Amino acid sequence: MSDELILSVDNLMMHFGGIKALNDVNFSIKRHSISALIGPNGAGKTTVFNCLTGFYSATGGSIKLNANGSSTNVIQVLGEFFQADDFVKPRQFGSRLWYKLFGGTHLVNRAGLARTFQNIRLFKEMSVVENLLVAQHMLSNRSLLAGVLNTKGFREKENQLLDHAFYWLEVVDLVDCANRLAGELSYGQQRRLEIARAMCTQPELICLDEPAAGLNPAETHALSQIIRRLRDQHAITVLLIEHDMGMVMDISDHIVVLEYGNVIAQGGPDAIKNDPKVIAAYLGAEEEEVA
Ligand SMILES: Nc1ncnc2c1ncn2[C@@H]1O[C@H](COP(=O)(O)OP(=O)(O)OP(=O)(O)O)[C@@H](O)[C@H]1O
Question: Per its UniProt entry, which superkingdom is the organism in (predicted)?
């Protein structure tokens, strides 16, 4: 996989019993780009996200993440089924057993991929800053002794995590709300807090599932600015699912279009806008609005 690519998805399949949510999905994402995954309802967009982030174990295909200085086979680290030839290949068996025992979605996040959800999933009874500290739990000093003795190293680490939390609050313009309960924020602020929380896990690729859903035009504009800032000032790669075509066409460098679990087109906004397959499949009803 070329170094220019941060994600490569090949022949991805996801079947739920008889339902083929994804048939044969192929696309790749360039580092430091903003890409969008679009398609009609039920096309399989969220299923792709769930496979990328490890919420679903894909039925077949491969997902390679090239982040944090190494290449990660996402399907492998989630723990694959044993194969017949494992028993004659001890190394392969050992690796599969290891990931069966200790693998999971946490390894995908550690490999440099974070996500937000279609339905906001904050800790609503916690303050804004606490939400960001929870996201950094793995980076904290978890030594019981250091905590009880409140050592210098422990305090320094706590301060570092707080600084990091405020850094991302600044980026999403929520510093003023740091001590408010997350559940008390407006919908738009909660969406931005979700992005900050995901960023606190130090990803290189962030997947945003319908980040503009329920936002008014001013909030959508502010969100677009934040997404651009992530790419331009923080070297983050963004992959988003979005139904707001105005926003998608405005901020995306690359667009992948799904229909019935297949990629029917991919390219830049202008190419996608004028692609007859896309117009017929997805934009048909809104053709005039999009053009
Ligand atoms: N856990 C599941 N069990 C069974 N079927 C599922 C499951 N998750 C998704 N599907 C099916 O897979 C297909 C794709 O669903 P998915 O939610 O990925 O679509 P989507 O493109 O994200 O749609 P939307 O834009 O409405 O969010 C649908 O037919 C859906 O019913």
Answer: Bacteria
Q: Give the separation between CA 129 and CA 182, rounded to whole angstroms.
A: 9
Per-residue pLDDT, 113: 95
Question: In sequence order, which residues have a C-beta less than 8 Å from that of residue 264 and are 6 or more positions away?
Answer: 257, 258, 277, 278, 281
pLDDT above 80: residue 140: no
Summarize pLDDT for 197-244 with one digit per residue, the tens: 999 999 999 999 999 998 999 999 999 999 999 999 999 999 999 999
Residue 40 CB–ligand 1 contact under 6 Å: no
Query: Within 10 A of 99 (CB to CB), how many other CB atoms are there?
Result: 18
3-state secondary structure of 84: helix
* DSSP-assigned states of every residue in 130-181: HHHHHHTGGGS---HHHHHHT-HHHHHHHHHHHHHHHHHHHHTT-GGGTTSB
Strand partners, 15: 20
Does residue 98 have its Cβ closer than 6 Å to ligand 1? no
Q: Check pocket membership of 22 for ligand 1, CB cut-off 6 A.
A: no
Judge if the beta carbon of residue 242 lies within 6 A of ligand 1: no
Residue nearest atom 18 of ligand 1, based on CA coordinates: 44
Q: Is the CB of 271 under 6 A from ligand 1?
A: no
| pLDDT score, position 288 | 47
Domains of the chain listed by start with CATH number? 5-112+203-289 (3.40.50.300), 122-201 (no CATH)
Give the distance (Å) from ligand 1 centre to CA of residue 198. Answer: 23
